[in-house]
Write a structure and sequence with these properties.
Strand 5 and strand 6 form a beta hairpin. Strands 1, 2, 3, 4, 5, 6 and 7 form a 7-stranded mixed beta sheet that branches. About 30% of the residues are buried. The chain has one domain. The protein is built from 9 helices and 7 strands.
Length: about 190
């Protein structure tokens, strides 16, 4: 779980040239997961902001994308938040979830929107946060599976509210979020 010590450890890792240059991955994609306890969400949010500021102050170029904020941007652009609220009032919850997922469209809109932000800012590393806020309409393993076709040239770190064994994700330490074994646990990285 990120704390001041682990955030400082993450800083040490992500600012290391070996990490930035994606060395030692044995051909694997440069995806990392930083699991944390959801009960510490506000603290972790603050620590992520501190990490980004510290990296920028040190001359690095991180890009941090909140998955919830990105979802809201897409909804506003495609149908508008007020229209979505009306759809929620008018439809059964399962139909609303389908309408929401259709609007965000992970393949045609969401992943390309992340790719566009990366191209526009040309960062050295990408951080993803807000995983818990977008559940259940966006699943983290689906983001990671689809992002590998869009982002390959920079390391990507997802802050994950739950457990990551290196083989499977367990959202909120309760919900199996499906198997995903292509990412590395950032806390096991050796400098």
């Amino acid at each position: 779980m990120p704390t001041n010590d682990t955030i400082n450890n993450i800083y040490d890792i992500v600012s290391n040239p070996r990490f930035i240059n994606m060395e030692g991955l044995s051909g694997e994609i440069p995806f990392w997961v930083a699991p944390y306890n959801i009960s510490k969400e506000l603290k972790v949010e603050s620590e992520i902001k501190h990490l980004v500021r510290k990296l920028k102050t040190s001359g690095f170029e991180p890009l941090c994308i909140d998955l919830f904020e990105l979802s809201c941007e897409i909804i506003e652009e495609k149908i508008g938040m007020e229209e979505l609220k009306q759809i929620e009032l008018d439809l059964d919850k399962s139909f609303f979830l389908d309408a929401l997922q259709s609007t965000i469209n992970i393949h045609d809109r969401f992943i390309p929107a992340i790719g566009k932000k990366v191209k526009e800012t040309n960062p050295q590393m990408l951080f993803l946060k807000g995983v818990g806020k977008v559940y259940p309409f966006i699943r983290s393993h689906i983001v990671l599976n689809n992002l590998q076709s869009e982002i390959k040239n920079i390391p990507t770190l997802m802050f994950y509210p739950g457990e990551y064994s290196g083989r499977s994700l367990r959202l909120f330490n309760l919900l199996e979020d499906d198997n995903y074994y292509r990412a590395f646990n950032i806390y096991t990285y050796k400098l």
